[in-house]
Amino acid sequence: MDKIIVLIGAPGAGKGTQARLLNERRGILQISTGDLFRAMKSADTPLAREVQAVMAAGNLVSDELTFKIVQDRTSMPDAAGTYILDGYPRTQVQAGQLEGLAEEQEKEIVAVEIDVPREDLLKRLTGRRTCPICGEIYNIYSKPPKVEGRCDEHPDAVLEHRKDDQEDTVAARLATYDELTAPLLDYYRKTDRLKAVDGTGDLEAIYSRIERAIS
Ligand code: AMP
């Protein structure tokens, strides 16, 4: 049976980085709701502006809109097999919506917790830089680009510091995670679908742990 691999972890736990590696190396489609919302930035519509404001404050976009975006994206032909959800679900309501979607798509949900201590998260978030062209994620402390401030693959592009990675927004995002998303760990644990992975240490070591957890 094809799977829906749900990556759960606090902001900065490395969901995006690891999902990109799984995509590159195993060809598993990565669907990141955060990336989908960020892509709306270029659209100058009232809805896009509203989403940007919600994100900038470190809050969650409504369950209704988020589900619509996930439904649309996962019904595209390239999502016919196993795919990774990076950053979804983030609330109990979303987890319920995903159960219905998985049933419709005849897929099995496997949740992977990437567990990282709080003090590491702060460093990761404030050090994170992203290429605006390919989305590659760097970190000025742990994964610097070859040339400071430039993407290795797109040297013309200046790496971006996400607005919601600034310190005050980070605190709000962590609080939102604790309140709304962390309870999902229990939900998946109780239904015997949770694999917990140590998210500290070397990128490659974390990747191997995740690969083992999902195979
Ligand atoms: P991320 O890149 O996963 O940290 O997401 C960035 C922002 O996008 C979050 O802080 C939320 O504002 C929004 N977002 C991403 N995924 C979701 C979701 N599943 N539900 C609600 N809002 C989301």
Describe the model.
This protein is an alpha/beta fold and 215 residues long. It has nine helices and seven strands; from the N terminus they run βαβαααβαβαββααβα. Strands 2-3-1-4-7 form a five-stranded parallel sheet, sandwiched between helices. A two-stranded antiparallel ribbon has the order 5-6. Helix 4 runs parallel beside helix 5 (92-104). The two termini are 12 Å apart. The mean pLDDT is 95. The site of adenosine monophosphate (AMP) has 18 residues, from helix 2 and helix 3.
Note the main attributes of this structure:
215 residues, alpha/beta, Rossmann fold, 9 helices, 47% helix, binds adenosine monophosphate
Q: Helix and strand succession?
A: EHEHHHEHEHEEHHEH
Number of strands: 7
As a percent range, the share of helical residues equals 40-55%
Largest sheet: 5 strands, parallel
Number of DSSP helical runs: 9
> How many whole angstroms does the radius of gyration measure?
17 Å
Structural class: alpha/beta
